[in-house]
Amino acid sequence: MENDFTRAIHNEEHSSTPVWYMRQAGRYLQQYRDLRQEMGILELCHRPDRASEISYVAARETGADAAIIFSDISIPMENMGYSIEFVEGRGPVFSERKDTNNGSLHPAADAIREFRKNHTDLPVIGFTGGPYTIFCYSNGARKEDAKTRIIADRENALNALKSIAKTIQSDAIAQVEAGADAIQIFDSWIGMLGFELARPILEQIVAPVVQAIRSKNVPVIYFSMGTSAFFKTVMKTGADFISPDWTVPVTNFGSENTGIQGNLDPDIVQHNPSLAVQLAGSMVYSMKDHRKYIFNLGHGVLPGTDIQTLKDITKTVKKVIL
Description:
Elements lengths: L3 H6 L20 H9 L2 H5 L2 H15 L4 E2 L13 E6 L3 E6 L10 H12 L5 E6 L1 H8 L4 H10 L1 H25 L3 E6 L6 H21 L5 E5 L6 H5 L5 E3 L15 E6 L1 H6 L1 H14 L6 E5 L9 H13 L3
Parallel strand pairs: 1-4, 4-5, 5-6, 6-7, 7-8, 8-9
Antiparallel strand pairs: 2-3
């Protein structure tokens, strides 16, 4: 189906700024909390019926222009022989196993297929983690250890990153083939490397993944944190849209050829609703002449966020006529 989101991401004329929220189906949402009383994150990721439905509910509750399929960036790593456990306060913890599934597990794609079957009124975004961010989790979620490996054991680390990239590329393309309208790559931790260490990863490892997805005629959004200082290098990944964190004004980004998504501070959204709504309106108005712009946060919705705040932000964003 077509709406402001699908038209904007394909650089077509649209009437108002599209909006959706990272971590849209998350702990702030009562329906999600109820669902988590029934099952853990891993089970939910492997239940396409429930994952697709909570994705739809979240989009409808917030008034978003697109759903993002519920999953976790760690899930494709099951195809590399890892088992995954979600530990409170740490997130996904990997442990190796022998069964690699021959690359056959694509639960996010299964959920997208289910979404497509049941919901024709909203576009759906697929996603995967960035190679470096997943590499950090494979090092026990210790970002410092991962960076040390990039510096001290460069060749082996880059080979590991290439293997991860191959796995996430396969998973992203499975999501495309299942019907995803776009793919977002979440690379939350690559900014900690700094320009010199991040550049070869962005240019040699991330960019080929982006191009493989785009070759299927599906747009790519690339989200990263801490990369504002080398934004032009991030743009070289070839992603259709770049999604920066909240630390720099959104007007600092974008070009005629690259779209921009973001980037309201999620802490403001959680702790000061009236200010969040005011800033959302100002942000969208400042970008109203930039045809390739999608409103979002500068990271995921925080658990203590009031859903009414997101509803009010959505209404404010949609009031600005382009």
